[in-house]
Design goal:
15 helices; alpha/beta; Aspartate Aminotransferase, domain 2; about 15% strand; single chain; Aspartate Aminotransferase, domain 1; four-stranded mixed sheet; seven-stranded mixed sheet; binds pyridoxal-5'-phosphate
Length: about 400
């Protein structure tokens, strides 16, 4: 047989779509070694800097000592260890919902929830910029999928209006769009969902721990917590909360239904005790230390203003995800490499992660960056963009 894999790899390289793994060394901090060079990391999801927080580490160590490092089975068999109960109670209370169900990853939550909630004969409406895990969940469900232009509620309403007599309608959106850093028009989406009797599902992977007075996320930011918000909300424990895993929150019956019908929940090993314990400690910090969130927002403001002063635009972002669109793939990857040489790591983002001709440097600031880190990064960005005649 001909070398299919090798040919495909060559094709990806010719298209500037080839991906490879970087060698990361050191603790998850603003400064790490990437491919052997010390750099300031500006593309992690460690938004609150909790990945190395002493309280999360202590919780993970204590759980490891007491319970071990493996949950040994799926949750419905022998893996439902005591930490799950605590974490789910805490997540439900944090989000103001009746119940929570922890999944192994956000990717698996989207896959498993969407494919359990809708099926053949149903319709899903989702935003053109929805995360890949939403897209894959839609595909797996066998429902008809209708994609509306980003945040275009008139287009969504036209679609909803045209579909009468459908068994179930599900609208799936992100709270904070992962590649643009803008927000969904959540209040209007809740109204549309009610008007057209659709279920609303919110993916708050990037809003949880960040948005709202308590850090409870997009729904809190818009004053639509609890059952006033989405019917179903998912989020990850692997970004602001500093651990690993994911959750779904909603009604008690939703939780019970998913335990029975969601294949990515049922057929996988339960999370390891240290991950669960660290997530509980992460929630403690989000709830008890709003100063960490404030430090993030201060850094976001400082870095965003710095980029703007250089003449770079970060539209449409209103959050900690700050995209600088550089359009062509090749140039974007060359910018990434030059920035690395100058001591800044910001992985370039290309299609299919973003739409064609919108490749970008997607900067993510964290609460742990110092002003010195941000000033040094801005100087390297200025030099790089000048070298490429982009300033
Ligand atoms: C919007 C969104 N949803 C879901 C996920 C997946 O979450 P996890 O990393 O826990 O699989 C991500 C992570 O990149 C994301 O950005």
């Amino acid at each position: 047989m001909s070398d299919f894999f090798g040919q495909e790899i060559e094709r990806l390289k010719r298209k500037d779509s080839y991906r490879s793994l970087r060698a990361m060394e050191g603790a998850a901090a603003p400064r790490m070694h990437v491919d052997g060079r010390e750099v300031i990391v500006l593309c992690s999801s460690n938004y609150l800097g909790l990945a190395t927080h002493p309280r999360l580490k202590a919780a993970a160590i204590e759980a490891t000592d007491r319970l071990g490092v493996c949950s040994t089975a799926s949750r419905l068999i022998a893996g439902n260890n005591e930490l799950y109960h605590t974490l789910e109670e805490r997540l439900a209370a944090f989000k103001g919902r009746e119940a929570a169900l922890v999944y192994s990853t956000g990717y698996m939550a989207n896959l498993g929830v969407i494919s359990a909630v809708v099926g053949e004969g149903d319709i899903i409406y989702t935003d053109a910029l929805s995360h890949a895990s939403i897209v894959d969940g839609c595909r797996l469900s066998r429902a008809v999928v209708k994609i509306f232009p980003h945040n275009d509620l008139d287009a969504l309403e036209d679609l909803l209006r045209a579909d009468s007599g459908v068994r179930r309608k599900l609208i799936v959106i992100d709270g904070v769009y992962s590649m643009d850093g803008d927000l969904a028009p959540f209040p209007d989406l809740t109204k549309l969902a009610k008007r057209y009797e659709a279920l609303l599902m919110l993916d708050d992977a990037h809003g949880t721990g960040i948005l709202g007075e308590r850090g409870a996320g997009t729904a809190e930011h818009f004053g639509l917590e609890g059952s006033d918000g989405a019917d179903i909300e998912i989020g990850t424990l692997g970004k602001a909360l500093g651990s690993f895993g994911a959750y779904v929150v909603g009604s008690r019956s939703l939780r019970e239904y998913l335990i029975n019908r969601s294949r990515s929940f049922i057929f996988t090993c339960a999370l390891a005790p240290p991950a669960l314990a660290a997530a509980i400690a992460g929630l403690d910090l989000v709830e008890q230390e709003p100063g960490i969130r404030q430090a993030l927002w201060d850094n976001v403001r400082y870095f965003r203003e710095g980029l703007h002063r250089l003449g770079l635009t970060t539209e449409p972002s209103v959050t900690h995800i700050l995209p600088v669109v550089t359009y062509e793939r090749e140039r974007t990857m060359a910018l990434t490499e030059r920035l690395l040489e100058l001591g800044v790591f910001c992985q370039g983002i290309r299609p299919p992660t973003v739409p064609p001709r919108t490749s970008r440097l997607r900067f993510t600031v964290t609460a742990a960056h110092t002003r010195g880190d941000l000033d040094q990064a801005l100087a390297a960005i200025e030099q790089t963009f000048r070298e490429f005649a982009l300033l």
